[in-house]
Amino acid sequence: MDEAKPENAAAPVDIHRPCAGFRVGLACETLLDAATAAKVRETAGKILEHIAKTAGTVVRDQAARAIYSEEAPVLHALSTLDGAADAMLSLASVQAGYRLHTVLPWRRQTWRKQSGQRAIALEQVLEKADGRVIEMDGGTGPIAGLPQPAEDMARAAAARMVVRNCDLLIAVWGGQSGKAAGDVAATVHVALGSGIPVLWIRADERAEAKLLRERDDLPKALTEAAPAAEALDENLASYVTEVLRPPSLLPRPPRSLWGQLECCIIGDVRHDEDRIGGYLHKEALDSSWFSKLFGRSFFGLRNWLAGKIVVPPIAPIDATGEKDRPRFASAGHFNALFGRPDKLAAYFAGRYRSTFLVVFALGAVAITAVLASAVYHHHAVYPLSLELVLLVVILALVRWERHEGCHRRWLDYRLLAETLRLQEFLAPLGRAVPLRRLLDNVPDDQRGREWVGWYFNARLRECGLEYGTFSRERLGHFRNHAHDLLLASEKGQIAYFELNAERYGRAGRWLNNAALAGFAIVFVVVVAKLGLLLAEHHLPFKPDWPLQLLTLGAGLLPAFAAAVFAIRSHGEFEVLAQNGERSVARLKKAAERLARLDLDQPLASEVLGDEIAAATTIVISDVEGWSLLFNVKAVELA
Fold first, then answer.
1. Residue 11: what pLDDT?
2. pTM, to two decimals
3. In this structure, is residue 278 part of a structural domain?
4. How much is the pLDDT for 80?
5. Which of 169, 432, 538, 580 could form an SS bridge with 191, CB 3.0 to 4.6 Å?
6. Cβ neighbour number for residue 326 with a 10 Å cutoff
7. Domain range spanning residue 103?
8. Residue 224: is it exposed, middle or buried by C-beta count within 10 angstroms (0-12/13-18/19+)?
9. What does the H/E/C string look like for 366-422?
10. How much is the pLDDT for 144?
11. How many Å from the N-terminal Cα to the C-terminal Cα in the chain?
């Protein structure tokens, strides 16, 4: 007898539902008098509390509760702790319930020396971070060839780390031009240039606050009066709500009469369901034998035409095995999230591509049935009945694919899977996949795909930073991890692109040759039929059945040759092969640059991050290319 399960047993954790979070970056001018500091602290405290209150309100919304996990919202505050004023803001964030994350430009020992007499007071603030400290690898002494002083470059790198990992920058600034790369003025410009809004608190006795959403808002803010407190609270609450609230459905434009008729005949291609809710709660793979067989038919044909392919991997940078390398929490977080969208993308890609493969093939058979009914007109009922059945099947397949949205779901889940997988290599360095440019290029009729970017950013806010010291050994692990898994291993991107380029190239050539052979045989058949017709009166028998066969062949072969050409064209075999070859060449150069990278140079972490980001951009560009290409490749009637 089975044991009874306790009623209060913990429910299984759904790792795919994100925990709500909001990230605030802190930047403050180093010199504030006592009165100004007190007023700034009061203003900043109210703003931080207002953000926290708004976040709690948004998460309690019915739509948000269905998407977010049941955990309370996590609020993050990031600071470089560059002086007493930064310490003041950091303490205010801790008191408001935020988790403090500190990004030091140097190792802690060097940072203490640079901080001088303030080090003891700042160390007390570090204790509030509970170990959430990143020690970067900036330099301090004179270094030949650097465009700026090493100390300024280190501070600027730490400030960029804060900006890259925040949703809003709270900057206490007097409005003057900056003198160094890492000061508050430069940080404000970097944030606005990166699309990060800035909550500007003026560094004077009034401590007026203004919300800057774009770079063009800054010149006006320098001259215009600050808005009323109620207006600022409303604008700030609107922005926080915009960040945290799940994307809503877009309004549908009205249909034309022809659009309504098309929807009735072949189904509705515009799906208005809650896409992110469907991904989290409804999406499941169909395990029936038909779905498995049908979904794999396209890839089975491609692989059969391509044959066996062996792709030699690039040699690793060192001999350390993958199992012996340290595991990074942030990388593991995104690696765990990759599996579900990857399987869904492969599943719906197979169903979508198999649908157009079968539709084109059945269309050729239907044309052959029409021709057979004309040739064998005494028994026309049989081929016409077959044609009717085929047309019904084609229509049913197109309606089924449109109703299921296999085309749209494939593109959505592949984009999500690739961004989550690539983020595994960028997260340990405090970087993120450049997804905004890709989503900006999504056509207007595909805007529903913006949920992918929202969900990905929600995961970024949840994950946090990888803490610790950017030592040479640690950076070496980051580089080897990216080189071997992203670029060089048997499961890496180079091997993937090489394999796909070879597969699609070979399959495309086979389909092209088959279609050309079909048309060549048709030419022979037509010549033979013409010869029979010319020699009919000189033959000792009446060539009725040979003429019928030749007539049927003259119609059947072009129909199937055209279907093969259509499959080749719709599948974009040659384009995918060429894109793969270009990506392989670019990624190999990226792998060479990673291998040559000097990890002993100051701020090697920034250079390493740039190189890995460049490699992921190559992959994202490939995803962007075929995503835009297949946006217009919806399944149509043959």
1. 37
2. 0.88
3. no
4. 92
5. 169
6. 9
7. 21-244
8. exposed
9. HHHHHHHHHHCHHHCHHHHHHHHHHHHHHHHHHHHHHHHCHHHHHHHHHHHHHHHHH
10. 67
11. 58
DSSP state of 135: E
Whole-angstrom distance, CA of residue 103 vs CA of residue 287: 48
**The pair of three-digit structure tokens given for residue 138, joined into one six-digit string:** 């900036």
If one counts the domains in the chain, the total is 2
Query: Is 232 found in the same domain as 356?
Result: no
Beta strands 21-28 and 74-79: pairing type? parallel
CA distance 580 to 501: 5
Give me 602's structure tokens.
């100051």
Amino acid found at 358: V
Q: Which residue in this structure is represented by tokens 């003057």?
A: 176
Q: Is residue 256 included in any domain, yes or no?
A: no
Secondary structure (H, E, C), 41-77: HHHHHHHHHHHHHHHHHHHCCHHHHCCCCCCCCEEEE
Residue where a domain terminates, one of 244, 264, 279:
244
Is residue 240 located within the same domain as residue 301?
A: no
Whether the CA torsion 575, 581, 583, 585 is positive or negative: it is: negative
517-571 residue pLDDT tens: 888 888 888 888 788 777 777 767 676 777 777 777 777 788 888 888 888 888 8
- CB under 8 Å to 115, separation ≥6 — which residues? 83, 122
User: Do 315 and 187 lie in a common domain?
Assistant: no
